[in-house]
Prior knowledge:
Order of helices and strands of chain A: EEEHEEEEHHHEHEHEEHHEEEEEEEEEE
Helix content of chain B: over 70%
Distance between the termini of chain A: 22 Å
Radius of gyration of chain B: 26 Å
Strand content of chain A: 35-45%
Mean pLDDT of chain B: 81
Structural class of chain A: alpha+beta
Strand content of chain B: under 5%
Structural class of chain B: mainly alpha
Number of strands of chain B: 0
Largest sheet of chain A: 6 strands, mixed
Oligomer: heterodimer
Amino acid sequence: xxxxxxxxxxxxxxxxxIPAVRGVGFTVETGEFFTLLGPSGCGKSTTLRCIxxxxxxxxxxxxxxxxxxxxxxxxxxxxxxxxNIGMVFQxxxxxxxxxxxxxxxxxxxxxxIPDRREKVMRALELVGLHRLEDRSATDLSGGQQQRVAIAxxxxxxxxxxxxxxxxxxxxxxxxIQMRFELRQLQKQLGITSIYVTHDQEEAMVLSDRVAxxxxxxxxxxxxxxxxxxxxxxxxxxxxxxxxxLLSCEVVSVDGVNATVxxxxxxxxxxxxxxxxxxxxxxxxxxxxIPMSWTQEELPxxxxxxxxxxxxxxxxxxxxxxxxxxxxxxTFEVQTPLHHALQKQNRVFIQLPPERCVMLAKDTxxxx
Amino acid sequence: xxxxxxxxxxxxxxRIRGIHVVVGAVLILLGYLxxxxxxxxxxxxxxxxxxxxxxxxTLRHFIEIYVDARTYELILNTLVFATGSTLVSxxxxxxxxxxxxxxxxxFKTATRIxxxxxxxxxxxxxxxxxxxxxxxxxxxINRIFVTLFGGDPLVDIFTMSGMIFVQGLSFTPTAYLIVSxxxxxxxxxxEEAAAIFGANLFRTLRHVVIPLLLPSIxxxxxxxxxxxxxxxxxxxxxxxxxxxxxxxxxxxxxxxxPLGVPEFGRIGALSTLFMFFTFTLALFYNxxxxxxxxxxxxTGKGYRPKLIELGRWKMFALxxxxxxxxxxxxxxFVTLLWTSLLPFYQPFSWDAxxxxxxxxxxxxxxxxxxxLALSNTFVVVVVTSMVVAIFSTVISWLIVHSHPYARRAxxxxxxxxxxxxxxxxxxxxxxxxxxxxxxPIYGTVWILVIAFVTTYIAFGTRTxxxxxxQLHQELEEAARVSGASRLRAFKEIxxxxxxxxxxxxxxxxxxxxxxxxxxxxxxxxSKSVVISTLIWEFWAEDSATTEAxxxxxxxxxxxxxLTVVGIIVFERTSRVRSSRPRRTxxxxxxxxxxxxxxxx
Lengths: 367, 600
């Protein structure tokens, strides 16, 4: 189990202090795949590098399996090379003067471990490169180089695996394939893993849990499904996927449902389980809004039905993106193809209560 | 599992870490090598006798220099000489760079290599070669001309224009090497765009190509100008006999005054004035290389530059290049070779042809002085080049890894020696080791090693910095995470990846410390003689022309070999580098271009 508490890190740039990570804390269970997701510059890579020991935090308590890796309180720090972790870098960081075999062998060699050949071959086999052991590392393709990097990270019995945007330099087809392989490999080995990415789809596919980061803070932590379907913070709703956000005010709560007032009228939502404030935003994902030419065709035609005007239609291949004007608000609506090619502009949309999520206004700095 | 029984190091912020000790030690060493001699030299200008431990300060030397009309003549001479040789080498260098990089000139690889080869001929030997060709009294060209047509000699090499001509030829490869990479990397789209709008060849050149390349051309100009200001061998060989003095030869003359004690005070004051100029220029050069690299960044896209067709100018261009090579390489070399095979110098004739023999080589190479010079040179060259290569690598690694302030200090201290004229460094080292006697190395070859390490560390660190910044930081971090200590990661990852650059430095420094003739002249004693100073001595004795030519030929052959090996290593290095991910370069260190610096 990895535990991070009160992690602060500032950089000195041109004499000024720039805070990169501001009091981040989280726990990763043994064997869990945990992802730090956020826009560039949010501090996710810095957090990872502090855990690896590549950066020295201003203050933090980092423990791995009950052992202090870094502790401001006890003024102790385990040097990088004694932390027993594996790391996969964005640039692959394959050593060009060594063969594939030597690259993977290096961690074993520096630690003076016996029976190295067997271990190296097993690691190479796991990533499907056992036939290329003699190749020079620079002769490999980008995807193969990244596999070498993964083999090198897992060749030791490491306690923790760190991934710093490892797939972002690959082309999109390969990236999708590697996601699945990586997930499988991690499940198979059961190594506690932390993954850093700005790609929300990657985070969804890979992770058991996701921590959304912004501006040096963790905004929210949750299972990947919850992060997408039931975000608790406005930032999460905005950053992960597309969303329609209507500012709203709670009118009444009846246990199962709540009624809120918005610019387009009153809307019934699922119960606002923890939202104490009476003002906030109503969020609904574009693909969760049924749209139809007549009110009767909607799934349940009695709640939250609004009449609107299509103002644009964009064909994206799998889906069609519409912009639908309802009163003073423009909804983003995503539907499968069969709705397209209708001449008519007048449509009905429905906001299913169970898909409407009530979000409090974000107060930055508290998470 | 983490080894819990191992002692964990305390928090780095609360303890002086190993790296700080190393940075401190290197800074102190660099300071000792670079700053101490300079301070002593400047101080001596303010002392009555020039000896720094004398009591009291005086401005007498500065006032005397100020009121002396000779000073202004000296400044004028130096500026004319430096400007002239810079213009000659820059015009030739830019023209050759454009021809070899942007046009369809035939035999391009051969041409590129041949244009670098003149670097193998040290300035002093080029000057000697041209004396043998164009001295009014003994020069072959003049003797043949007078025999055929009678009258006065045709050309006189012992003039300001003669000096500018020879120095210009000698610096052309340097200008060419600095400028040609930016010609190569310039985006051809810009040229094509101009062509699409109907600009002809010369308009394209004038309005698009030249302005874009201006920063790198100015950088080359500043570099060559800086070196022309401080160079000694050509002004010493060609100017001193006809009493045309520039700063360097003036200081040499003042320091080797035949009567009594050298005027150390005057020398110190002159040097102080002079270094004010060279430091300004060095900073300007630093600034221009920074701009040059910003303008001509590699886009990373593979492209084949469109080459300009020379058409009927093709043969003319080739003829110009061959003519240049004849003047800067072949004629002086053949003349030296001719001289070395004759018992005394005489122009070409049938009689002379009968006398050719290797007798000169036999007698010269069996002299004890020559043996001493050869073995001294070997020691100096080997030790200097290895020390510079290793020291530069360590400095560059520290520049990448240390605190911004330490980084700045390391970068500046290792760059400054570029602005210290070798003659003055030589002088300053005399002060240091005559006054501070804790290292009894005055008069030995080790003082030469110190002088050369100090001057060539500037080139060494420029090269290793560039190589180090091209290594992606994650390569080293991956090793650290894999369980390697800092030292082990340095040994097993950094060093093997930086070896080509280190080899580059080794070869360059070896070639340059072998031919160096400024600091070595200042520090010359009967014990510390090296080949270059011995050539100078033979040449100064009127009767030993053959010996000078013999040693000259030996030296040129070794230098040619080193240059060719250098070119091969350089070609291999640039090929390996391009296949590697790059370290993100911080803007303030991006000026560390790997350019060939000439030897002053």
